[in-house]
Specification:
The protein is an alpha/beta fold and 450 residues long. Helices cover 31% and strands 25% of the residues. Helix 9 packs parallel to helix 11.
Length: 450
């Protein structure tokens, strides 16, 4: 039954946020709300925020203003990590009607039913201590019917000195394998070909699901148990591991992916710094030697594998010598691309209290150096696969009459649009690299859906 009311969502930050926004959207659809685009007029606007960068406040304010331009009388609700960390700050933004913290965002439907009783002059805040966010709620998002981002883990028990995520999302907790398998089957029934497993600390899956046997406590399941169970599901053709810490990316996991029918040869492994001194002050749980051994292991059993890397530049105390040490370490790694982040101070983190602040212009200079290195790494990785044939999942995305897709090892492909190929996995010849840095398929290929 329709409520006659409309709602729009705007999501900032990681794929985890997108999966949660999608699941919350399903709640409203089932309750009779009509979901509309955020650029359209709606009765309610939900902004799901991020806290990773120092632009969280700016982006949130912009989204609120944008919503109210479409409908000045609309109710704006802000949820997500930034809402947990700075609820009062968000409540002071003109036009915000309600702020929901980590433990309340999935109860948004309950709160929104009574929102009209609140004064428009003051935002209502429902943000308890992050320790109250102790229940795992699975969620997934669908991108244009080709792939899904499935949340299987949330929260983090690590204490990295630069990170606010444990303060925003709480302790590590996971879904149970049987409920995740059921979700995967549900997703498969919608025609999805690829599922990307997501989490705050994905390799920590199994924490928070302890069981008692006799006088001993043990984990109910580990990440390796989860991916083994998922690999047996024949209705999904592809799985990807979104990101996994190097100390949790074990030989067992790597060897499993190498022989798997459904897990793609693609790893994204955060490094953050290639200098051991900086890794130490960041309070990371490994040294660069372990990281190098993970990369070497992957490339030994899967020479064609794609490896992505997260790096932070300009961390407090990072001298030019530290940076050059990190740069040369990364340059010598057989990796495929980088995600480079310029360090920004975050309140309530140990790093924000540290001395030896790197000037912002120097941070940007280092970011640019690593960005250029990333492009070189990606180009080299692509060149290694020229004139080979790999399976490509073609997507509907169109630009200037082109459609895009990804190989199993995450090479981005382009070709003239063909509706027949949408959401199909096809053997494709990697013919050349175009001026945009994308791999072009061989025009004469006769595509046969796998």
């Amino acid at each position: 039954m329709s409520t006659g009311r409309s709602i729009a969502f705007h999501t900032l930050g990681c794929k985890l946020n997108f999966s949660e926004s999608s699941s919350i959207g399903k709640q409203f659809k089932n309750a009779g709300y009509a979901e509309v685009d955020f650029n359209d007029a709606a009765d309610y606007y939900v902004i799901n925020t991020c806290s990773v960068t120092d632009e969280a406040d700016k982006k949130c304010r912009y989204a609120v203003r944008k919503a109210l331009r479409k409908n000045p009388s609309a109710k704006v609700i802000v949820i997500g990590c930034y809402a947990q960390l700075k609820p009062k700050e968000i409540a002071s933004i003109p036009g915000v009607a309600m702020v929901l913290g980590a433990a309340e965002k999935f109860n948004i439907l309950h709160h929104i039913n009574s929102i009209d009783t609140y004064s428009s002059s003051y935002a209502s805040i429902f943000a308890s201590a992050v320790s109250d966010a102790n229940i795992f709620i699975p969620s997934y998002s669908i991108e244009d019917r080709t792939r899904t981002f499935l949340k299987v883990q949330d929260g983090c028990d690590y204490k990295c000195s630069f990170c606010t995520i444990p303060l925003a999302r709480g302790k590590s907790r996971s879904g149970r394998i049987e409920e995740i398998v059921n979700l995967v089957n549900q997703i498969a029934s919608q025609g999805i070909k690829e599922i990307v497993l997501t989490g705050v600390n994905l390799g920590d899956f199994g924490q928070g699901t302890e069981i008692i046997e006799g006088n001993k406590t043990k984990k109910e399941a580990l990440f390796i148990d989860l991916i083994r169970a998922l690999d047996a599901i024949e209705s999904i053709e592809r799985f990807r591991i979104s990101s996994i810490e190097p100390n949790l990316c074990t030989d067992e996991i790597i060897d499993f992916v190498a022989q798997s029918k459904r897990f793609m040869p693609h790893f994204h492994i955060p490094l953050q710094s290639g200098d051991n001194d900086i890794l130490s002050v960041m309070k990371r749980r490994y040294k660069r030697e372990l990281y190098a051994s993970r990369v070497e292991k992957i490339k030994t059993v899967m020479p064609h594998a794609c490896i992505g890397v997260d790096v932070i530049v300009g961390f407090p105390g990072e001298t030019i010598e530290h940076f050059h040490n990190s740069y040369h370490f990364i340059n010598n790694l057989d990796i495929s691309y980088l995600h480079v982040f310029t360090y920004s101070e975050r309140e309530n983190t140990l790093a924000a209290t540290m001395d030896q602040i790197v000037p912002m212009n120097e941070r940007h200079k280092r970011n640019e150096m690593l960005r250029i290195l990333s492009e070189k790494k990606r180009r080299y990785f692509y060149e290694q696969h020229l004139q080979t044939v790999r399976p490509v999942l073609w997507e509907k995305e169109e630009k200037h009459g082109q459609m895009h897709g990804f190989t199993d090892n995450y090479i981005k492909m382009t070709r003239p649009s063909d509706p027949y190929l949408f959401n199909r996995i096809c053997d494709t010849t990697l013919a050349e690299i175009n001026t945009e840095g994308l791999m072009v398929s061989l025009a004469q290929d006769q595509f046969i859906a796998l």
